[in-house]
Every structure is written in structure tokens, then in C-alpha cells.
Amino acid sequence: QVQLVESGGGSVQAGGSLRLSCATFGATQCTYDMAWYRQAPGKEREFVSSIDTDGRRNYADSVKGRFTISQDYAKGTLYLQMNSLRPEDTAMYYCKSNRCRAWGQGTQVTVSS
What we know:
The protein is an all-beta fold. The protein is built from no helices and 11 strands. The strands form 2 sheets. Strands 2, 4, 5, 6, 9, 10 and 11 form a 7-stranded mixed β-sheet that branches.
């Protein structure tokens, strides 16, 4: 079992930056192969970025070049550095353990124009 706790969300103006964190508590194997998703009001949850056990990263086209996913295994924490934020990035952001199929509770990101 694993518990995922996101933090770092907030309100920023367009062009600003935020860094999201996802702390993991529980089974170590659940910290491998993780991802970020987001869900805007009235829309389905969508993939943002992932990182696998070999450190390979994938990004949605909409965030490529602006967002960077990283992980500190010693701290058991997943990160998402978000730069050049746009109003369309406004959403609830969730981290996910793909291996253990677990989700965090989400952290809200609001970008104003």
C-alpha cells in the first residue's frame, strides 16, 4: 500500500512558475514508474507527464518544453516543475503510482491571464 500526498499548487499569473511535489508513504516499489495527471473543471482527467524506473520521461504535447518531471528516490518524492504557465494549465493536478495504481488527493493550480 502507498499514500501519495501532493503539494505546491497555488495561484499564479500567466508566465509564472510552480513546482509541485508528491510525497510517497508506504511500499517502496510503488515509487517506481510514476506520473502526473490533471483535470480541469468539466473535462476528463488527462495525462501530463511520467517517469519510469530507467528515468525515461514522457510529456503531453501541451506541456513539452515547459514542464519537467523529476524524482528523488531518497526522499520518496516526485516533482513537476512547471514554467511558462498558461491559463489553460488551470486544473487539479494528481500524482499517480502506475505500479501500485494509487492516486493522490490532488493540488489545485490556477493560472490567471
